[in-house]
Amino acid sequence: MSIVGIVLLVIVVLVVLILVASSLYFYRVAVYRQPKAFLVDNPDLQQVLTSDLPIADVPWVEQQPFELVEMKSADGLLLRGFYLPAPQPTTKTVVLAHGYTGSAKLNMGPFAQMYHEQFGYNVLMPDARGHGESEGNYIGFGWHERLDYVKWIHLLVQRLGEDAQIVLHGISMGARPS
Q: Residue 32 is part of which domain span?
């Protein structure tokens, strides 16, 4: 093999190693459960979270008597959700699915308040696997969560009866399984 061939081979190997290493790094940043520095340190996001926008309005959620609801996922994770009965008995229920790196209570409060107060719905806000109070070390981007939401719906049907009317409402990544 000539010197040029060896140099080209070394360059190709180095490029492949760099691509593999960077792919693994970005996979880990996106998928594994951990604080996301690019979100935590984002001054624009901090401005939104401290603004008067409804997304920042979590006191309503904190004042409600949510019941902690737990279930096991098909692969054995303990998943937690928060259930709030409607002001008047009803079988109408909304399941609210939060987005990437979010949590039910932090991100879905304005929607819960709307469905609960304006429409008179029961509200179920699950924390997706790898988020909030649910177990899990990785984020499934809706693939694994789709099966989790089917189980949440079965849980609601057991609780409310076969005539339960269930709405799935998701934002961002939570819209995928919805």
A: 3-45
